[in-house]
Amino acid sequence: MRLNKYIAHSGVVSRRKADELIAQGRVKVNGAVAPVGWDVKEGDVVEVSGRVIKPEKKTVYYMLNKPVGYITTVNDDRGRETVLDLMPDVKERIYPVGRLDYNTSGLLILTNDGDLANRLMHPSGEVKKTYLAEVKGLMHLSDAEKLRKGVDIGDRRPTAPAEVEIIKQSESTSIVEIRIGEGRNRQVRRMFSAVGHEVIKLRRTAYGNLKLGHLKPGQYKKLSKNEIEYLKSL
Ligand code: URA
Prior knowledge:
alpha+beta
């Protein structure tokens, strides 16, 4: 197996990142720095930055309904619970595709397929994510229109066009569905803040065409063959 594929299958990094590590001389096979394009044979010992790695036998794909109060990184230096604490039965070294804030709930994909994860997280924004937001105050049609066109959230460029539907309006709070392709840090919260509405609750309800369905907060399921094929087709 090609060295870059072997490294990607170990769940450490994507194949492209593996190529960079190999080019930087940080990968050794049987104790010697390995050249790009090396073929790994049965019994070879591969080290990345001094650590021996082994490819995962099989790739696995899960959907979790993340509850509020969990972080989406694999380790937390402040000792907070991570989404992996919710999935003790999963033996493979999976990690989340993208992030949800500590205070955000909803649909999270987790896998040990480094190549797919990296493609899905690409900033080209191909994958549309749908969120249901409860926000403070009366959401006006003009606010929704601004979000649709793109707003300044203090980054170098405004946000890309979004799909926005007001589900419920009242003087105190409103419920809004928003669908975006980008995945900037705290993007949805910052978008609503840019039009004067603080987000009280945020839940991701769909990732592309994949929906949470009946999964309750804290529950997870293996993705079906069709769902995996769909993600690979994106
Ligand atoms: N946008 C946010 O503001 N937070 C999330 O967790 C996801 C999208």
